[in-house]
Amino acid sequence: MAENNKTAKLSFDGKELELPMLSPTAGPDVIDIRKLYAQGDVFTYDPGFTSTAATDSSITFIDGDKGELLHRGYPIDQLAEKSHFLEVCYLLLYGDLPSAEQLEDFESRVTNHTMLHEQMVYFYRGFRRDAHPMAIMVGVVGAMSAFYHDSTDINDPWQREVASIRLIAKMPTIAAWAYKFSIGQPFVYPRNDLDYASNFLRMCFAVPAEEYEVNPILSRAMDRIFTLHADHEQNASTSTVRLASSSGANPFACIAAGIACLWGPAHGGANQACLEMLREIGTPDRIPEFIARAKDKDDPFRLMGFGHRVYKNFDPRARVMKKSADEVLDLLGIDNNPTLQVAKELEKIAIEDPYFAERKLYPNVDFYSGIILDAMGFPTSMFTPIFSLARTVGWISQWKEMIADPTMKIGRPRQLYIGAPMRDYVDVEDR
Ligand code: SDX
């Protein structure tokens, strides 16, 4: 974080404050307000954190105006094209692309941690069969705190490393078993001879009654979807993980908090909501009716998969996802998929509509992902668990970065109090 000789001057109530400014590697300068309350006896006010940098970080950078996303400096479209998910996990966790030897060692460590403690099988049985897989994910990941005590001491770098590998490795098993449980099929155990994405597909779709051959096209598409969802700066769920972790809570509990936050339809739950919306629209001729509803301030309906707090241009992940959707559907022989036709027509109409153009509302990562996942055979209820699976490496990388920072403090925002002034208690007989 570069100190610079710029300062920001604030004058109010007869006070003249001069606050230091800090310059980033990329993006806007920040005004360092850490001493504002001590010097000026005022707070800043920014619900929703639209103008607030809550931390410094070296992991991911987003240029919302240009529609750029970098992981440790590498553009997401290059990573999606040339890399693969576990290599991107290494990059996010350790800061640089691995050598061949480093990558082989990392992949081996992840592969050898994919099994769950066998006792956790019984944990699943506590849920109803119709439980949403996200409810199961929150419960099972939180329960890992009760099974992996030897990697919960956040002050021990080795235990932090073990917890990181365990979470990245076990999330596909946890998510696949949540799916199997919801459809009443037996759990399928991970295999060490399969790559990360193929293992996940096999755990989801294999049955004991027959051999399951992983379709390489689907495993490549699955791996790319994981890569596109891996990390995204200080989004709501990552900020949740950071805030939970700032109290010193164990990593499994903090990741469970991140999963809970991601579940919301304004965030990671949008991929399920988007596909359900596209299906509700059904045919391109019904699009104007839904566009009208999205504009109607009296109607809570929003175009799911559109808009973003940071991107005021196309989400670069949506571009890659759109290309991948075409490839996957074409390769699966699902031509003129009605949902994809509706999505493409909706994208075209919405972007040309002044309401959306003025507000810079473009398709985001969730707009096309559901179409691919649906074509691959996943129910909509599994879309956000897959997002959680992929985002675990982002949450963990951001967690490690924060915990390793010796200046880390517990997060404790203040407020603008608008409640009752102090008043005396009144006995019930006098009210
Ligand atoms: C993700 O933060 C991240 O990085 C998240 C994420 C990640 O990888 O972690 O990228 C993943 O969460 C992507 C976003 C998925 N959510 C959706 O697709 C749900 C639909 N989108 C909206 O809910 C909304 O766009 C948000 C929540 C994504 C962003 O909301 P903001 O930044 O708080 O914007 P806003 O609500 O202040 O909206 C600004 C204006 C408003 O109109 P006016 O009051 O100015 O007239 O735009 C309108 C909004 O009504 N608007 C929409 C809209 N999104 C915003 N109108 C119709 N449809 C929409 N989708």
Report on the structure:
- The chain is mostly helical and 431 residues long.
- The chain contains 18 helices and six strands.
- It has a three-stranded antiparallel beta sheet with strand order 1-2-3. The protein has a three-stranded antiparallel beta sheet with strand order 4-5-6.
- Helix 6 packs antiparallel against helix 7 (157-182), helix 7 (157-182) runs antiparallel to helix 18 (383-403) and helix 9 (216-228) packs across helix 18 (383-403).
- The longest helix is centred in the middle third of the chain and has 26 residues, at 157-182.
- It is globular.
- The N and C termini lie far apart (57 Å).
- The structure holds s-citryldethia Coenzyme A.
- Residues 232, 235-236, 266-268, 270, 294, 302-310, 359, 361, 364-366 line the site of s-citryldethia Coenzyme A (SDX).
Write out the distinct hetero groups bound to the structure.
Answer: s-citryldethia Coenzyme A
Helix/sheet category? mainly alpha
The oligomerization state is single chain
How much β-strand is present in the residues? 5-15%
Q: How many helices in DSSP terms?
A: 18
The H/E string reads: EEEHEEEHHHHHHHHHHHHHHHHH
